[in-house]
Write a structure and sequence with these properties.
Pfam families: Amidohydro_3 (PF07969). With 570 residues, this protein is α/β, with parallel strands linked by helices. It is 32% helix and 19% strand. The strands form six sheets. Strands 1, 2, 3, 4, 5, 18, 23, 24 and 25 form a nine-stranded mixed β-sheet that branches. A six-stranded parallel β-sheet has the order 9-10-11-12-13-17.
């Protein structure tokens, strides 16, 4: 008798095969049967609901959160059963005892995770990277969790202040960094990560250590992966966010040589940049090389900022708003609705111009309200604040002011900065269908104040496989494969990502017709009352990790069957 049987499920098995109806049986955390199953201790009448492998999210930043939070929301709310953290060269190991505050400042600056939350939440049970893995291994989670060795932490550990200031590494420094990375990957890290984009800075304004690393350093560290024969080399490349449109081609060139030299896969962030809106297509083609293994990470929707009273908005630097900025949201809304206060905030110049507030004011044609449910991440240009204001004969900032106050100040607008140069996701669809592209860039656990993209898997299901009307959809089986088998295999996790006998029973039972994203909301539930944006979803009937149900109808069951995944063990 099996432990669990899903009876009559519509199976989308992760291989890219068309959906089919079958029973799926599970015993001792593994799938035992796909077809016609017998009796079981627990039977779930799937009644045609989708049954997919659990989603494998390869781009998260739960490095701090994993030390205090076993649930790992919001990713866990969106069908993720395995997450990979330690991306973009930032993390918390290795950690010299006198470098804790500096590492927190690095993560706070690069990934917008409140430093106060990290200071209060992290218990610092480690110094070396293997000790960090052991600390994670002592914990249980609602999902499995893997990590990578981050360049920033390694460089600062080996070189101290010289490393933090991005001074050139000596041959001795490179040898020491290689040894630490090799030790970490041998102990179970899934790879190594670095950052070269000028948009990534620590809280003190310094660039991430390794941003300007020379090839001898980049290739010297890569030798650690070559010698072990495992691990992914992940990076945020120079020019990824459009800060230098001439850099990406050169980045592809050295990444190709690195992959050839090490024999290891290299995965890098790829986004559409407004200034060169077709460059992504050239970079995709350059990544195809018979002798190199380059895998561009692409997203399923625009990348930008969420605009609201509780994140950032156009009026944060106005003197009259600053007088009430610290009031509770409900009281702030009441005051902002006062005609006198409204007139003053709209009319007065900034007290001291804030860069982000000025950016919001400067691009009303890039501001799109998000619905409370079924958020549309491919809005028509005619629905922007600027277009609506023109149609109504109003000032765009007056309209934005009023929109921010809707739903008692919980309303939220999307401001796409990347991946939306043409006001369409047609380029994104082309990226998502490229044979070398992998789904990533959700940044779960990071950018807490103005981004919430950990919900990318739900966008894949709801928008790309079902609802898209402004262009071609994507086949459901393609969408599921990208989130399961493809991401799992990139990181060598060959025991998951496919529904087949012998595979790990990480599964999602989904009411496909009712999958929907709710509008993001601001919560203050991090340690020290730190804030973060969270986004719920409908349609996930159940999520299972190793055959144990972790979520039922979007709520945590209290079960924590997840654990650290060590590379080489799959």
């Amino acid at each position: 008798m099996d432990d669990l049987v899903f009876r009559g499920a519509r199976v989308v098995d992760g291989t890219g095969a068309a959906p089919y109806t079958a029973d799926v049986a599970v015993t001792d955390g593994k799938i035992t049967e796909v077809g016609t199953a017998g009796a079981a201790r627990r039977v779930i009448d799937a009644d045609g609901a989708l049954l997919t492998p659990g989603f494998v999210d390869i781009h998260t930043h739960y490095d701090g959160q994993a030390t205090w939070d076993p649930v790992l929301a919001p990713s866990a709310w969106h069908g993720v059963t395995t997450a990979v953290m330690g991306n973009c060269g930032v993390g918390f190991a290795p950690a010299a005892p006198d470098r804790h505050d500096w590492l927190i400042g690095l993560m706070e600056g690069v990934e917008d995770i409140p430093g106060s939350a990290l200071s209060e939440g992290i218990s610092w049970e480690w110094e070396t990277f293997p000790e960090f893995l052991d600390a994670l291994d002592r914990r249980s989670y609602a999902m499995d969790l893997g990590t990578q060795v981050p360049h920033g932490a390694v460089r600062a550990y080996v070189m101290g202040g010289r490393g933090a200031r991005n001074e050139p590494a000596t041959p001795g420094d490179i040898a020491a960094m290689k040894a630490i990375v090799k030790q970490g990957v041998a102990a179970g890290a899934l790879g190594f990560s670095t950052s070269r984009t000028l948009t990534h800075k620590a809280i003190d304004g310094e660039y991430v250590p390794g941003t300007f690393a020379a090839e001898d350093e980049l290739f010297g560290i890569g030798e650690a992966l070559a010698e072990l024969g495992r691990g992914v080399y992940e990076l945020a490349p120079a020019g990824a966010a459009g800060e230098d449109v001439n850099a990406p081609r050169g980045e592809i060139a050295w990444m190709r040589r690195l992959s050839r030299a090490t024999g290891r896969p290299v995965s890098f962030a790829l986004l559409q940049i407004d200034a060169v809106p077709d460059l992504w297509r050239e970079l995709l083609e350059l990544s195809v090389d018979a002798d190199a293994r380059l895998f561009p990470q692409v997203a399923s929707r625009p990348f930008g900022m969420l605009i609201s009273l509780e994140s950032l908005h156009a009026f944060g630097d106005r003197p009259s708003y600053r007088e009430i900025a610290l009031l509770p949201r409900e009281e702030r809304v009441r005051r902002m609705r006062d005609p006198g206060v409204r007139a003053r905030i709209l009319a007065e110049p900034p007290a001291e111009e804030d860069v982000l507030s000025a950016m919001v004011r400067g691009f009303p044609d890039r501001l799109y309200p998000l619905a409370e449910r079924n958020c549309d991440y491919e809005p028509e240009p005619g629905t922007s604040v600027a277009a609506r204001a023109r149609a109504a004969g109003r000032d765009p900032m007056e309209l934005l002011y009023d929109l921010l106050l809707e739903d008692d100040g919980r309303n939220m607008l999307m401001m796409p900065l990347l991946n939306y140069a043409d006001g369409s996701l047609d380029p994104q669809r082309e990226m998502l269908t490229h044979p070398r592209a992998v789904l990533g860039l959700g940044d779960g656990g990071a950018h807490c104040g103005f981004i919430c993209d950990a919900s990318l898997p739900t966008t894949m299901l709801a928008h790309w496989a079902r609802d898209r009307w402004r262009g071609e959809k994507l086949p459901l089986e393609h969408v599921v494969r990208m989130m399961t088998r493809d991401t799992a295999r990139l990181y060598g996790l060959t025991d998951r990502g496919v529904i087949a006998p012998g595979m790990k029973a990480d599964l999602n039972l989904v009411d496909f017709d009712n999958v929907a994203l709710h509008r993001p909301e601001m919560a203050h539930d991090l340690p020290a009352g730190g804030r973060r944006l969270l986004q719920r979803a409908d349609g996930y009937l159940g999520t299972f990790v190793s055959g144990v149900q972790t979520f039922a109808d979007g709520e945590h069951t209290g079960e924590l069957p997840g654990s650290l995944v060590r590379g080489g063990a799959a």
